[in-house]
Every structure is written in structure tokens, then in C-alpha cells.
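dumping this here so i dont lose it
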């Protein structure tokens, strides 16, 4: 609110991009997909702490495209949620990674700590012409390929 008020006083624009669960190449090694890839590549079985937890996963290329659009398209002042607009379980993401290794998905679950899921409301981004283009399956596949070569 402070940022919006300050920009009104100065005659500037205020754009707040709220990123949801961004994944892809460049992601920290301890994140879900890189940790699953690391465990499977070494012949281990990753521990999926909360396989039933739900997140709004958005591929890095889609998130970057949304930010570029906001910065260059004269978007109206406001808050923009950057996500896929859909929920997927952590277990589903892990299963997709397992498939890339040709390994049957098995749950080696830790202690669940389920938090209420948050899904991005991408209505305002759609209004200025943005849509996520990379499906979860394609994004996980691209991410696994990158982390397999590291």
C-alpha cells in the first residue's frame, strides 16, 4: 500500500509481481526437482516430505515472460500474481521426474506438514495478454534434463 501511495504522489506506476512456486534451470540444488534428480541419478530414493502438498508451479520461462510483459507493456498499476493458475501436488511433480529416469514412482515420505494451498489468480495477467505456455510435464522434463547434466 505504501508503494502504491508513493507512486501516486510522484505520478509513477507501481507494479507488484507476486511470484508463486517458480521452478526450472538455475533453481537451488535443495529444491524439489533438483533434489529428486540428484537422488535418482545416484541410485537413491528421494524423500518426498509432503507428497500431498499442493503448489502453484510455474516454469521460469513463463515467469520471466510475465515480468517482461509487465515491464514493457504499459500494464496498469497493481498487483500481478505470477503462477500457472492451477495446483499440482508435490508427488505429481516427483512422479514426472521419476518418469524421465524410467523409474517407477514410489513414495518415500517424510513427516507431512501440509499448509493450505495458494493458487495464483492470473486474471489480471491474462487481461494484458499473458498465459503460461509451458505445461507442468514439459517444464519438469526440461528441468530434469538440465539437472541430469550437472
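and the seq i came up w/
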Amino acid at each position: 500500500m505504501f508503494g502504491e501511495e508513493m507512486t501516486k504522489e510522484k505520478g509513477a506506476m507501481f507494479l507488484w509481481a507476486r511470484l508463486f512456486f517458480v521452478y526450472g534451470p538455475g533453481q537451488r540444488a535443495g529444491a524439489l526437482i533438483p533434489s529428486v534428480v540428484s537422488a535418482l541419478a545416484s541410485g537413491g530414493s528421494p524423500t518426498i516430505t509432503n507428497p500431498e502438498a499442493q503448489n502453484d508451479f510455474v516454469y521460469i520461462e513463463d515467469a520471466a515472460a510475465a515480468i517482461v510483459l509487465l515491464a514493457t507493456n504499459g500494464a496498469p498499476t497493481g498487483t500481478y500474481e505470477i503462477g500457472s493458475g492451477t495446483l499440482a501436488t508435490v508427488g505429481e511433480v516427483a512422479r514426472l521426474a521419476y518418469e524421465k529416469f524410467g523409474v517407477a514412482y514410489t513414495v518415500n515420505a517424510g513427516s507431512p506438514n501440509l499448509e493450505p494451498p495458494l493458487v495464483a489468480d492470473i486474471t489480471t495477467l491474462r487481461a494484458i495478454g499473458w498465459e503460461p505456455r509451458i505445461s507442468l510435464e514439459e517444464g519438469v522434463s526440461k528441468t530434469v534434463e538440465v539437472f541430469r547434466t550437472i
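The chain has six helices and six strands.
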